[in-house]
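Subject: for your reference before the review

Hello V.,

The reviewers asked for a structural picture of the protein, and I figured it would be easier to keep everything in one thread rather than splitting it across files. Below is the amino acid sequence we used in the manuscript, unchanged from the supplementary table.
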Amino acid sequence: MNEKLSLLSELVKLARVDSEISAMELEFIQQIALMLGLEKDHVMPLIGEKIAYKAPKSEFERIVQFHRLVLLANVDLHIDGEEIIALQKAGIKLGLRPEAINAVLNEMTKHPNGMVPTERMIEIFTAYHN
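And here is what came back from the structure prediction:
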């Protein structure tokens, strides 16, 4: 449960980078909560509190979490420099290779609304795999 809350907490943290959480960002985070097997009600308390971050154990799960962060950053159809920096830091915190993180962030510019398809995300991380 703590790992799931930690993942949601990272999404909330990214959403707050630009000082406010939009309705679209909140809905996205609540949908991720449901996908993780949590109730939407678990999200609201995270907005006001910090939970110690615990990265997923498997690399695949860490890539999935980074993909969620990328999708969240683009859900409001606006991404600024602070969000890019936050995504880079989050990717590093997840233990992902900086080259792969930057490749994904560059890839965002090639897709409508910055939404990098899952298959493309996996291709990028596979190319930079140790």
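For the response letter, the relevant points are probably these. The chain has a mean pLDDT of 86. Helices lie at 2-15, 23-35, 43-48, 59-75, 81-93, 98-107, 118-127.

Happy to draft the paragraph if you're swamped.

O.
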